[in-house]
Amino acid sequence: MRAVRREKVEAMSPVCIYTAGDRIEAEMLLEALQRNGIQGFREARGAGGVMDVYTGNSIFGEKIYVDGRDTEQAGVIIESILAESEIDVEPEDEISDQEVKNPRWLQVSVGILLILLTAGILVSIIL
């Protein structure tokens, strides 16, 4: 005879701990939580569920839920991940508007295009 295996099953009381900008960010954060032993799931906001089905992503964001008992630990993990991902831009690394210039060929092409459009409009008015 086989021994009866008994397990205690507890229901999850989901708590929203973060709203990710999109599905990719939500999946990455859920992966990090899972690596730390925290189970969670994501839910699209608003009509985002339909957009997930049709386009694979949603512009409405994704809510991340974990069990109520894991909220504190999950919050710490997510905060540390988000803090690491922020990039500090030093003033000397910023590109000023003066440094960004269009190539000469692009400027000439736009000028020629404008002249041709103006000529076409004048010809259509005259004829």
TrEMBL record:
Residues 15-81 form the DUF2007 domain. It holds the Pfam family DUF2007. The keyword Transmembrane helix applies. The chain crosses the membrane at residues 105-126. Keywords: Membrane, Transmembrane, Transmembrane helix. This is DUF2007 domain-containing protein. It comes from Drancourtella massiliensis.
